Amino acid sequence: MTATNSSEYKGIWVFAEQRDGVIANVTFELLGKCREFADKLGQKLSAVLIGENLEDTAHELIYFGADEVILADSPVFSKYRTNPYTDILVELVNEYKPSMIIYGATSVGRDLAPRVAARLKTGLTADCLDLEVDDNGLLIQTKPSYGGNIMCKIICPNHRPQMTTVRPKVFPMPARDSSRTGEIVRKKVNIKEEDIPVKIIETAKEESKGPKIEEADVIVAGGRGLETKENLKLIKELADVLGGTIGVTRPLVDEGWLPPYYQIGQSGKTVKPKLIITCGISGAVQFTVGMQSADVIVAIDKNPDAPIFNVATYGIVGRVEEIVPELIKKFKAMLNK
Amino acid sequence: MNIIVCVKQVPDTMDVKIDPVTKNLIREGIEGVINPFDKNAIEEAVKIKDEYGGKVTAISMGPPQFKESLKEALAMGVDEAILISDRAFAGADTLATSYVLAEAIKKIGNYDLIFCGKHAVDADTGQVGPEIAERLGIPQITFVKSLKLENDAVVAERLLEDAVEKVTVKLPAVITTTKELNEPRYPSPIKIMKAARKEIPIWSASELNADPEQIGLKGSPTQVVDIFTPEKTTEVEMIQGTAEEIANTLFEKLREKKVL
User: Fold this and answer.
1) Window 224-253 of A, Cβ < 8 Å to B
2) Does residue A30 sit in the same domain as residue A94?
3) Residue span of the structural domain in which A125 resides
4) Residues 48-67 of B with CB under 8 A from A
5) Which of A32, A88, A135, B71 has the smallest set of CB atoms within 10 Å of its CB?
6) Residue finishing a domain among A195, A226, A260
């Protein structure tokens, strides 16, 4: 394949993901990390914001670290759709020639980035857990394979832009600084609604009680060791006492105990709470890859050799039915609830 | 309705190890199976064919042993299977893979729907489906949990992080499938026997007239520079005693850590 002339490509782009004008947290996390890269390389950090009525939203991206916001504002972008977003992003890349574009590994990022990569004929690395840049601006991307059992470091040496999707919550949220200033570059949009093949009929929000699982500070998670569906009530009660939410492993979702919304792990959500209490979860790597960066991990399982104890901060060997009711009683009393 | 399903063969376990010296995957004792999400893709394709008529073709790019998965696809009800195999394809990243699969799809021609699993559980990229769609210049609907046909269009529900999005698009289109879409069938012994006897043609690079610059390592912009097993960093502290003692100790510990 013909290599691109890397020296023509400069600047770091973060694809700014938004839904109904609300920027996804992963975008801020990526701006924080890419701010480091921009300073190290002496390059500009740009956020590319595509949507409708986003003038005010654009400033937020500057407060979180962007030097400039490239804004494509049009009714055709009101909701994310593959084709118009690809069209405008590719047009912008051809105009500005960034050295790298970083996306969140979300349903949007993982739908859009490969489409852009195939049109630009450049490389793309999926679902990264870490990023570094060397002094020459080469992006070193660490991604899990085989359900997190193996890690790969991947580079894209001869093609530009270098592109990657990064899993939410792997980089910390940077501080917001409303004294930061930057430029907003407005891009004229020539895409017409009638040329867009996909129409959105409706979007139905999944209802969940308590905080969103990706944003919860406390999660109580259940696995096969709950033994009965009835025992889901125990972990719900413990989560309520702690002001948290619940999550489950894939087998419980496959059994239909709870919808996929609650699934933590490789094929579910990645969470990074302050505290996670796992109840009856043996700790297959497909699960732990989704929660191992929690600040404190308490693991309860009846099998003393369960691999969950390899990632836990505190381990308790016992049956969920015996341990969890005591925790509820104690925590309720101490936390006055 | 002419449907093409892209199938990848993956190890039957994700519990794999790497040889620390050669950095190669230790393949001993690892069997190959159809990527789980690709089974949902096959099931949906066969279901649609059963209802509307037409033909389902399964394709897979990989070494000769990938024939095993194609045989399973045939047993599940796929009409024809083609293995796309050539040493020149080795080392392909998603961009080079999508090139080869798109060329094969063009050679088959006259397609209405193309199915791919939402991602393969080994490399876990989910990129090949959208990249094929782009190379064919047709729309994609990713993460599909329900699907129905309406005249020359498809109506699909997409499973997003915290919402379900219902969309419609005119055919042809690429669909990527989730496990919520259907329950893949178990083929009967008779169908397995019939499938075992069926010829699976092999298409090489020359049969596809593939551009040598766009296949294998040469056609792959990304390179793997290191592969390693992640290390664990913390040592667990076990809490013992009666359930009540455990609750008391844990509460104190969590207070110390300032998480309560």
Assistant:
1) 242
2) yes
3) 6-195
4) none
5) A135
6) A195
Say how many domains are in chain A.
Answer: 2
- Give the minimum alpha-carbon distance from B193 to chain A in angstroms, rounded to a whole number: 30
Does B11 contact A206 at a Cβ distance shorter than 8 Å?
Answer: no
**Closest chain B CA to residue A202:** B166
Please provide the DSSP assignment of A210-264 as one string: SS-TTT-SEEEEE-GGG-SGGGHHHHHHHHHHTT-EEEE-HHHHHTTSS-GGGBB
A203 inside domain: no
Instruction: Count the domains in chain B.
Output: 1
Q: Is A312 on the interface with B (CB under 8 A)?
A: yes
Which whole number is the average pLDDT over A231-245? 94
Do residues B218 and B212 lie in contact, with contact meaning Cβ atoms separated by under 8 Å?
Answer: yes
Going by pLDDT thresholds of 50, 70 and 90, the confidence category of residue A208 is: low
3-class DSSP state of B39: helix
pLDDT band at A207 (very low <50, low <70, confident <90, very high): low
**Mean pLDDT of the region B105-110:** 97
Question: Which of A89, A100, A115 would best serve as a mutation to test chain B binding (most B beta carbons within 10 A)?
Answer: A115
For chain B, what is the total number of helices (H) and then of strands (E)? Answer: 6, 13
Range of the domain at B14: 2-214
**Residue A271, token pair as written in the block:** 């969470």
User: Alpha-carbon distance B139 to B172, whole Å?
Assistant: 8
Cross-chain Cβ contact B122/A286 below 8 Å: no
> Is the predicted pLDDT of residue B1 greater than 80, yes or no?
yes
Across the interface, of A153, A212, A214, the residue whose CB is closest to B226 is A153
A203–chain B Cβ distance below 8 A for any pair: yes
- Is position A140 within any domain? yes
**What does residue B112 show for φ and ψ, rounded to 5 degrees?**
-105, -40
Beta-carbon contacts of residue A63 (< 8 Å; ≥ 6 apart): A176, A177, A178, A180
pLDDT at A118: 98
Question: B123 CB near a chain A CB, below 8 Å?
Answer: yes
* ipTM score assigned to the predicted complex: 0.92
* B93 assigned to some structural domain: yes
Q: Looking at the complex, report in whole angstroms how far the Cα of residue B217 sits from the nearest Cα belonging to chain A.
A: 10
Contacts with B, A 52-111, CB within 8 Å: 82-83, 86, 106-107, 110-111
A106-118 as b/e: b if 16+ CB within 10 A: bbbbbbbbbbbbb
Q: What is the CATH number of the domain that holds B209?
A: 3.40.50.620
What CATH number is associated with residue A124? 3.40.50.620
Give the C-alpha distances (Å, rounded to integers) separating A3 from A7, A10, A267, B219: 12, 16, 34, 10
Structure tokens at A282: 């043996």
Shortest CA distance from A219: residue in chain B: B259
- Mapping DSSP to helix (H, G, I), strand (E, B) and coil, where does residue A52 land? coil
| Chain A interface, best mutation among B37, B236, B242, by max A CB count within 10 A | B236
Measure in Å the smallest separation between the Cα of B199 and chain A Cα atoms. Answer: 32
Clarify whether residues A150 and A232 are in a common domain.
Answer: no
Rounded to the nearest 5 percent, the helix, strand and coil shares of chain A are 35, 25, 40
What is the reported pLDDT for A272? 87
Radius of gyration in angstroms for the set of CA atoms belonging to chain B, rounded to a whole number: 22
Q: What is the pTM of this model?
A: 0.87
- Residue B194: Cβ within 10 Å count: 14
